[in-house]
Amino acid sequence: MLFILYGILTLTLCGGDAFHLVPRIIRAVRGINDKIKRQLGIGLQVSSITMTVFYIILMYIWKFTFPEFEIPVIIKAIIWISAVVRIVICMFPQNNWCTDEGNMKLSIIRNAVFAVTGIGVIILYLISGNWIQV
After folding, report:
1. pTM over the 0.85 mark
2. pLDDT at 129 > cutoff 80
């Protein structure tokens, strides 16, 4: 199961990144136009969502890597809730993914929520390293 999760983790990260990296390469080679702007915007949105999914998968990798530890309910809740909130925020059309303006307020909110998700995963790995006793 752990091997499969690592495969999914890798595909999630690489696939998600490709959605914004390929349009960046095309933009660098061919220049900017409306089609490339749209592709890059959608790519950034997809990448934001897949990075969130990456952390969820990483939580389950932790679970299978350290079966002697139990994920604290509060940490699991923090990771799941913040991940779902971030994905929902990423879906809002007000993010203006495909425009030059973007939405600074939503960008700050979605990235602050993403930081909470990441901190939750960091705490799991600290627990398994015997840094924190829960």
Report:
1. yes
2. no
